[in-house]
Amino acid sequence: MNLATQIRSGLQNQGLPSPSLSWIQSAMPTRNPLPPLPALTATVKTRFLATDLTHPGLLEAPGPTFPPNPANPEVKEIHLPQDVLVQVLDIDNLSKSKWEQVEELEAIARGEQTRGREIIRLPTGNEEDEGFGDAQSVAASERPTATTSSRGGGSAAAAHATSASKSSTHRLVLQDCTGQKIYGLELKRIERIGVGTLNIGEKLLLKRGATVARGTVLLEPTTCSILGGKVEAWNKAWMEGRLARLREAVGADNRN
Hints:
This protein is of the alpha+beta class.
């Protein structure tokens, strides 16, 4: 068994769909000697999760896809016949006002998040991890976000953010490897889904049997597995564009 095949088997054992052998070869480090197999597998996994799913040759053909025309609102209900790997293109917290979302994104941009009644400042660098650290560190550092002040209102805002995160409902735009897009809506709360904790380009595995109703995938912890990753350029552009659009919308509402 050659090295690329061993790496693919390692990824499959971790529940990932199969990248093509040719893509694995291209994603392997070029240094000599190569690192041990576990480190190689971790590196390829990180690069796989940071790659656009629609990249030609990424997955073994045929890749796992939605049924034809999945976003058709006239179809009352269907269930996915197979696991489908998707990437996140957009996220919206339906439980927050536009102004609350502006404050949230501004806090994330400053590297601030709340933990209970304490404000912590997180690193905001774009360094790429060479293993599983990226997904694990994101999950470990997940906290509801808010803009708080040291003079009055800070504790209340932090407490509000903590309670709101448990009852929030998010809507995602998801895309499969063929480019088909569909909304995903939290039917039951999934803790890792949130603005600032779920990245644009992050990979999700929608499991066989997941419900698609009226053109929307209903997301539940039992049928949606978050694999991690991020497409850095997409995430940066989304953050900047989203904040600008929300500020414009808030300004328009105030003028009206």
